[in-house]
Structure formats: structure tokens, C-alpha cells
Specification:
2 domains; globular; TIM Barrel; 412 residues; two-stranded antiparallel sheet; 16 helices; 8-stranded parallel beta barrel; 12% strand; alpha/beta; 14 strands
């Protein structure tokens, strides 16, 4: 055990210094306007988080392709974007000297059928389980289409640096396109992008190389990666470690560890599913994997999911398993959670998770996400968080977003 404080800074291999060990992990905000640019509400929300004390803020999904969205009001960063609105966002989101990294993403087949008539994926394999009716059968990507998507990641990263983001994070987790390529369950291609793990990781390495070419060696490039998919025939911990080693060799600056997908959303409901009692006590869902990973690499790590207290976060960092703790829901409910944790080594934030009383309905409406989205919309309007917010109101707000969403640009 070491004696690291949550407020201690951390220097990345590139020389970039992050002011403390608390990271705001990506959140589903849905605060893009009808042109897919950031709304003023997003600027207000991120200024609240900047003032709240986290050393690193990672945005929610910024999509690289406006014809492929994961949610109705996603922000898109491409050549059609109004960059002035992004500049407003980055200025507000770094007002206290913290870092703000753009999370870049492509949903692949995890694009709801109301947004994508024919989504794309590594292979023409549909999503399964309770959510399957909400998603259409995907089309298998051709190699030229794959290269086009890699180019879109590169363009988004170049623009991210231009508008004032201080780094980028590739979303390689939670069942989105990068994760789909890595998974033998979802990637059954017979070309150089499928089959062996070496082939399946080609897409993410191509994306990384293209981004690095655009932003240079001193600009942080990170990834959010699944420790595992927690599905039969899916991406495993052993494979994840091999991908980490390949990314480290390529030059990745930072890795955030998570897990699960829409088919098995352990990243949202981990404490209610496959998490042991010992893990609940340690608060972090994926800390055991991080401990194993630490034995094979010294790359800066962040573990997200489950943290609720100063003590739990300090124990995780001082165990040596992780360098940063990632927070999402605690920062939504208390934007100044980091400042409170710095000031009080015994600080704890606890609350009851929202429920309609009907488990299936909660799952179908993704209440564990939509309720928190509604809280972020309140903060973006300058309103206070409402811990007693009706889950039914959150569901109605989410459905209204879906019904009123602007048309998705057709794929060329």
C-alpha cells in the first residue's frame, strides 16, 4: 500500500499532468441540438463539473458519423459541425484548470431502430435478449466502409484538438462498434478484420494509429475498454489483457476499464448482477481485473463503477491497482463530489436507485440511464438535482426525446 491522496496530480508518459486522481467518466447526456451541435445546457453542465473539482472530465458519446447515432440527441463532431459551439463547451468545461477529453464513438449495430433502418457492424449478427426488438439486423461492413469509419475517427480527433479538448478517448467498450470488432461473438468475419484476436483488434489499432497521426505524440489518446463482455462466446479478460498490451506497445496514454454491453449491462447494474459481496465492499466493479492487468503493464489505469466514498476511492488507488477512479452517477447527483471527498476522508454519498416497482419496465426503459439523464438536463438548465425525481417522469421525458428527435442523416 502507498500513501497517495485523491488530490495528488499525475503525470502521463507524454508529459501531460492531470491535477488529481478523480475522473468524470462518460455519461449519456443527450444534449445535442437538432444540428447535432452541443446545446448551451451542455456547456452549463460541464462548467458545474469543472467547478466541482474532478481533474479529468470525459464527455459522453461524441459520435464520429452523423448517419450512425446511439441516441436521438447525440452530439456529432465532423466537418459539418458548428465548431464555435464546441469552443464554448470546452472553455466552460476547463474553467478550473482541469482536463476535458472528448469520447469518440461509433455505435455500430447498437443504434436503435428508430434511428437506423440498417445499422452497420463487423458481421450481420443481430443483438439478442430483451432489447433485441429495439434494434434492426445490421449490415456487414465492407473493407472500404471500415476504412471510411477509421477516417471519421481521425477527423473527429483533429477537430477535438482544434476546438479545445485536451485529449480524446476512444470508446472501445459497452458493445459499441470497437467492442463489436473485438468480440468473437459479434465479429465472425473471414477477412483481415476477423477470426483471430490479432485480426479482431486490427480495427481498434487502425483507429488509434489514425488518431495519433492527426493529433501528435503530446496530445493524450486514451481508450475505454471492456475487461470482458460477460457473455458466452464474447470478449474475455484474457483477450482484453492482450489488447491492452498491443495498445500500450502502440503508445496509448491511458486506459479506463469497464465491462458489459446493452445485451448485459453490467456497467450500469453491476452491483445487482454478477458482482461478489467482497467486490461490493471495495465499491469498484472491475478492480480485480485491474489488479491482474497491473501485473503485465504500467500504463495509467482508471477504474469506473461503484465508487461512493472517499475511503473506497483512496483504498483503490493506494492498492496500486489503479491510478484514477472514475465517477459518473455520483457526479450527476453531486457535481462537487470531488471537492467534498478531498475535504473529508470519511465522505460518503448514498442514495436509492430509481425504480418504477416493475423490474421489466425498468429494464425496457433503461431507467438506470434515463433517470440520470433527466438529472443532467436539470443541471444544464441551472436547476438543482432532485433526488426524489419520479422515475415515471424520467421515462416520459426519455420517450418525448425519442419522439421529437431530428431525422438522422442518410448514409452515403
Amino acid at each position: 500500500m502507498t500513501d497517495i491522496k485523491l488530490s495528488d496530480e499525475f503525470k502521463l508518459n507524454s508529459g501531460v499532468v492531470l491535477p488529481n486522481r478523480i475522473m468524470k467518466s462518460a455519461t449519456s447526456e443527450q444534449l445535442g441540438d437538432r444540428s447535432r451541435n452541443p446545446k448551451p445546457d451542455l456547456t452549463t453542465l460541464y462548467e458545474a463539473w469543472s467547478r466541482g473539482g474532478a481533474g479529468l472530465l470525459v464527455t459522453g458519446n461524441i459520435m464520429v458519423d452523423r448517419s450512425a447515432l446511439g441516441e436521438p440527441f447525440n452530439v456529432v463532431l465532423d466537418e459539418e459541425s458548428d465548431l464555435s459551439q464546441f469552443v464554448n463547451w470546452t472553455k466552460a468545461g476547463t474553467v478550473k484548470g482541469n482536463h476535458l477529453w472528448a469520447q469518440l464513438n461509433h455505435p455500430g449495430k447498437q443504434s436503435p431502430n428508430v434511428l437506423s433502418k440498417t445499422p452497420v457492424a463487423p458481421s450481420a449478427i443481430p443483438l439478442e435478449g430483451a432489447i433485441s426488438k429495439s434494434f434492426n439486423m445490421p449490415k456487414e461492413l465492407s473493407e472500404p466502409e471500415i476504412k471510411q469509419i477509421v477516417g471519421r475517427f481521425a477527423t473527429a480527433s483533429r477537430l477535438a484538438k482544434e476546438v479545445g479538448f485536451t485529449g480524446v478517448q476512444i470508446h472501445g467498450a459497452h458493445g459499441y462498434l470497437v467492442n463489436q470488432f473485438l468480440s468473437p461473438r459479434h465479429n465472425q468475419r473471414l477477412d483481415s478484420y476477423g477470426g483471430t484476436l490479432e485480426n479482431r483488434m486490427k480495427f481498434v489499432l487502425d483507429v488509434y494509429d489514425a488518431i495519433r497521426h492527426e493529433v501528435g505524440t503530446k496530445f493524450p489518446v486514451a481508450i475505454k475498454l471492456n475487461s470482458a463482455d460477460f457473455q458466452k462466446g464474447g470478449f474475455t479478460e484474457e483477450e482484453s489483457m492482450q489488447v491492452v498490451c498491443a495498445l500500450v506497445k502502440a503508445g496509448i496514454d491511458h486506459i479506463e476499464i469497464s465491462g458489459g454491453s446493452y445485451e448485459n449491462p453490467i456497467m450500469v447494474n453491476g452491483k445487482d448482477q454478477q458482482i461478489k459481496e467482497s467486490t461490493r465492499k471495495r465499491e469498484a466493479y472491475f478492480l480485480t481485473y485491474a489488479e491482474s492487468l497491473r501485473k503485465v503493464t504500467t500504463v495509467p489505469l482508471a477504474v469506473t463503477g461503484g465508487f461512493r466514498s472517499s475511503e473506497g476511492m483512496m483504498n483503490a488507488i493506494n492498492s496500486g491497482a489503479t491510478d484514477f477512479v472514475g465517477l459518473a452517477r455520483p457526479l450527476i447527483l453531486k457535481p462537487d463530489f470531488p471537492l467534498a471527498a478531498f475535504a473529508d476522508s470519511k465522505f460518503v454519498l448514498d442514495w436509492k436507485e430509481p425504480t418504477t416497482g416493475y423490474k421489466k419496465l425498468d429494464s425496457m426503459t433503461m431507467l438506470a440511464i434515463t433517470w440520470y439523464e433527466t438529472q443532467m438536463w436539470r443541471i444544464g438548465k441551472g436547476q438543482k438535482v432532485k433526488l426524489k425525481l419520479s422515475p415515471w417522469k424520467a421515462i416520459v421525458s426519455s420517450i418525448w426525446k425519442l419522439v421529437t428527435s431530428p431525422p438522422v442523416k442518410k448514409r452515403v
